[in-house]
Amino acid sequence: MQTQHTFTTNARPQRRVAQWLHEFEIPPYVPHRLLRGGHLQTLIGARPGQAVRPVAASHQRHQISLPDGDALVMHDDQPEGWTPQCGAVLMLHGICGCHAAPYMVRFQRRLGQLGIRTFRLDMRGCGDSAPLCRTITHAGRSEDVVAAIEFIARLIDDADSPIGAVGVSLGGNQLLLTAGRVGNGFHTPPLGWDRVGPILAVAPPLDLQLCSDAMQSARLRFYNWYFIKHLLRRASPQLRSREDYQQMLRLPRPRTLRHFDREFTAPLAGFESEQDYYGQASAAKVINDINVPTLVVTSDDDPLVPVESFAPVAQQSSDRETGSVRLHVSKGGGHHGYLKRDRTSWSDDLVSAFFKEAFASRA
């Protein structure tokens, strides 16, 4: 039996908050009976599994130039019979992901079946963006999300065409941070922002300091090793050619993500320290500024993102009439594992149902 906790923040909406957000019936989640527990769900859920390919009537690969000289690549999958009124969804991957991550492709397939156009973004240094970047992605790259939204809005130049967005893990934090920074004026509302919504963030590390604290546990040693190995291996040729990066490689190899953020992430991204990075890039501090209909989903046994990090969001308000952010805490699921009894992913069901109902409510 699923336990659901639903909260709303005391946001100050600058636009109409869709009533459906609080009435939306979240699909029930029943974990696989042999995969109970956060670690099992996380580890098994992260395995590639059966190869899946995007399904679309047409596929385009767009390049988004950024002010600092880097560029992002976005994969545009358009289903047969698509019209602007069918809507589009921007998709952001996690720390070790890219456009080809299994969950990204599964989301694309499910949304494509609904006639929704999707844009799978490769963040800096990830996937097809890697050869085009001298810098790295991180939790605070809201300016890159803004650039992607503006690109989509220019490409689909129709005021009646809704633009949704879904972000997983690190991508979820980037998405929420973007919405909050637009809401509080840190970012000027990008072109097409009035068309943005809804937003779905799955397993976002809202409070990077709390997540970093949790990762210090000896029980999470494997996760630290895995992430660090992947991040070092993924470094692009342009990044590897930088003298400061070469100097970093001469230092002792980091043992924890906090150590990695101190020696690599913070200096490469222009932060004074890992604490400065965590403080500026955590979406928790701007949740109350979000004025776009937003669903945040996590589980009560996520080993990487402590459920306690969502407590401030829950405590701010329970106003179902005007709140623009809804928090759902599932019983089980790990860190974006969510494997069901049939070993399919509950998050696929959630993404499909969420955007189907959201776009229908705007029609």
What report would you give on this structure?
It is a single chain. The protein is 35% helix and 15% strand. It is built from 13 helices and 9 strands. It has helices at 20-23, 38-45, 102-113, 142-155, 170-183, 208-214, 221-233, 237-240, 243-249, 257-269, 274-281, 311-316, 346-362; strands spanning 6-8, 58-65, 71-78, 88-92, 117-122, 163-168, 196-202, 294-299, 325-330. The longest helix has 17 residues, at 346-362. It has 2 domains: 6-207 and 286-362, Rossmann fold (3-Layer(aba) Sandwich); 213-275. A 9-stranded mixed sheet has the order 1-9-8-7-6-4-5-3-2, with helices on both faces. The protein is an alpha/beta fold and 363 residues long. Residues 1-17 have low confidence and may be disordered. Keywords: Hydrolase, Serine esterase. Belongs to the AB hydrolase superfamily. AB hydrolase 4 family. GO terms for molecular function: monoacylglycerol lipase activity; short-chain carboxylesterase activity. It comes from Aporhodopirellula rubra. This is AB hydrolase-1 domain-containing protein.
